[in-house]
Every structure is written in C-alpha cells, then in structure tokens.
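Instructor's aside before we start: the two examples that follow are unrelated to each other. I chose them only because their records fit on one page, so don't look for a connection. First example below.
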Amino acid sequence: MFKRLFGARSQTNREVTDALYEQIVAAARQPYFYSHWNVPDTPLGRFEMLSLHVFLLQHRLHGTQGKAHDIAQVLIDEFFLDVDHSLRELGISDVGVPKRMKRLARMYYGRTAAYADALERQDDGALVAALGRNIRPDEEWLESPRLTTYVKMAVQNLSAQDLDAICAGSVKFPRAGEQGQ
C-alpha cells in the first residue's frame, strides 16, 4: 500500500521533471546561441548553456514549497545524471567520471551563485562579467550583453508563469535573439 501511495506521486513527479528537463534542454540548444552569439558549440559550451537554463528554472522555483520544491530537487538530480551520462559518452573512464563530476558540480554551483547574486543586486555589469567569464573565458566576449538581456528576459518571463503550470510540466523560455537581444 505504501509503495502505491508514494510510488504514484514519485512517478508523476518523474513525468513532470522529464517534461521540464526536455524543455530546458531545448532552450539551451537554441541554434541562435551558437550561430549568432558565439557560444562555443563544444561539450563545455553546451554544458554552460544547459547550466544556465537549469539555473533559470531553479531561480524561479527557489523558495517554493511542496511539489515545486520537490521538482526543483529532482531537476538538479536529472541535470547531474545527464552530465554523468554525457561524460561517459565522451569516453571518460569509470574512474575519471567522479573526479570530473565533482569539478563540474563546483563549476555549476559557483556560476549559479554569481548569476543569482548579480540578479539579486540588479547588477547588469556583474551578470555580463559572470556570463563572459564562464562562457568565453578565453577571450573578450562581445555577445555577453546580449545573453544578459536574454537572461533578464527569461527571469521576468519565468516569474510571470503560473507555478501550477510549471508543476504540471510546462515551462516557456524566450527565444534567443528576440526583442532587442
């Protein structure tokens, strides 16, 4: 009986988080990022964009309770499972994966702390710098202000979305390159 009671909710959350994660991945893979804004189309560049979009939804769900809080945790778990799977697909050995996962987790949490701080302080300059430092550390990235505009638009867009709709598995991210980005 307990399995039936708790298993049904778990399966529902799994279906919702799978749907949300698919939408996050689709948003992170928008070709415009790579073709127009010079985001590196490499495993690390794709990690950066996926991290950013996971952060954006996490930022929206921050401080929620109940199902939304549970979904936020499952989304983080799904993200790191996806990263683990990707490392293995790239040919990283079973011995090397845990070390790389620790490094990527530190990268994710460091980046998201910088993004959250810049958004909290409404400091566009800090957000431009953080995005540039993380996505194109090898050069001065002239497109960083455009991605900053996108991030701010996404935060505004996500905050306007109904929490019940998100908890049902529907989230919408802006299209890159729209509205003056």
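Example two begins here.
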Amino acid sequence: MYLDRIVETKREETAKLAATLSIPQALETIAGMPATKGFAKTLTAGRKRDMGLIAEVKKASPSKGLIRPDFDPVAIALAYEEAGADCLSVLTDAPYFQGSSEYLQAVRQAVNLPLLRKDFVIDERQIYEARILGADAVLLIAAILTPQQISTFMRTAASIGLDSLIEVHSLEEMKTVLELELSEGVLIGINNRNLHTFETSLAASESLGKLVPEGVPFISESGISSVQDMDFLRNTGASGVLIGECFMRQKDIQAAVNALMGPVGSAAKEGGVSIHE
C-alpha cells in the first residue's frame, strides 16, 4: 500500500532531519520571520468566490505517475494567483510526488498567497521546518497519526503561527478528529479519495460533511473536475475545495481555474462545462 511505504520513507527522512534541525534554533529563526498570512481565514472570511480554492502545485503522484511534464512551480503558482486562487498547496514530498522543499521556498518568494506545505507529517520537526520554508499551514493526515499526535501537532503549528488542515477520509477518522479540541485556524479536509483503493467519490464529502459542526470549516479534496462537481459540493456545506491534478493537466491553467470556479467575485456558476483530467 502506498501510504505504508510513504510513512516508512518519512521515518527515514525525519531521522535525518532530527540530526540537522534543532528546535531551539528553529524557534530563533522563526522569531525573526514575518507573520504568516492566515490560511484558514483567507479560505473563510477572505475568499474571492462563493467557494474557496486551494490550488495545488503538483508534478506527479504515486497512483498517476507524472502529471505535468513541463513543470515550473513558480510559473504555475503565478498563474494560480492571477486566476484568483485563495491559497496554494505545494507538494514537498520528493520520492513519491516529485516535490521539493525548494519548490515551496521559490513559490513563497513569487506569490503573496497563503501556502500549505503538502507532505506527510509524522514528526514535530517537520512543522518547524515548514514554517522556516515559508508555509502558512501544514497538512495533518488522520490516517497516519494517533489522536494524541494530531492534537500535539495542531498545537505546535499554532504556537508558531501555522494553521492546520486535518485530513480525514473515513467515518472513523472523522469521529476521532471531532473528539479533539479544534482550535481557531483549523480546517477539516475531507479526502474524496480512498487512501487504500485510491478510488474517488464526492459522496465522501457529502456524508462526512454532515458530521462537521457549525463553525468548523471543511474543504473537499480530490476528484473534482467539473462544474457539476462544484455544484454538488456547494450543497454539502464545504467552505472550499483543494484541486491539483485537474488543473495540472491543462495547458492554460488560468483559463482552467476560471472555467471550473467561475470568475472572481462570482456566485454559483450555471452550465455544464467540464475540465477533463
């Protein structure tokens, strides 16, 4: 299974990180950095359309292989910004997604949008590293973390100005997360992709979204590629969507964003336009 292999690789990576990243030194570095940009607030109070958009800078995936051969993370990020994306997600996992920490740093220099470090966090040091790299939020995947780890990592992130996107993909994971004390700046991500079979169904956002209490925003992730999908998700109560592969397969990214999301300032878009993956 991909997830088990990825976590095993992360254990090796974080063992090396432990030898190079000192938390006291990291805190000293962070103290001299500008404030973060309010990832969660941008997707709720500050979003540009009726649905928030986290647009993903993604070169490849374990299940689909190479997604965008002409991958230029900065050019992609600028196209997203021009298209009115609210936030960006940048893959930093190298072995399985062909991402890089350097991509996140380069994107941070190029755009003024809040950034999510998209990686597999299993060690507290990765959170400090994310802040130093320029992230405004981190991804916490319930499938690979204990409830205690999620709670600890969420607090660690908040202590250095980072928001958290806590990702669930099953009823059991959702119940576990909702039993935790969720602080301000926390979003729940509902992954429409089954992490065991890699099949996607927007029904996950519909069924799990009903459990999210009022006041806790949730983001629908994966398998979103048409205006009909967006219409369906609006009725689930989602505050926003995270979309990568659909846009990455289009030559004109800015046009693809506007075709799927509608123009900036728009409400629900009518019609049957589809962006084919």
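The chain has one domain: 2-262.
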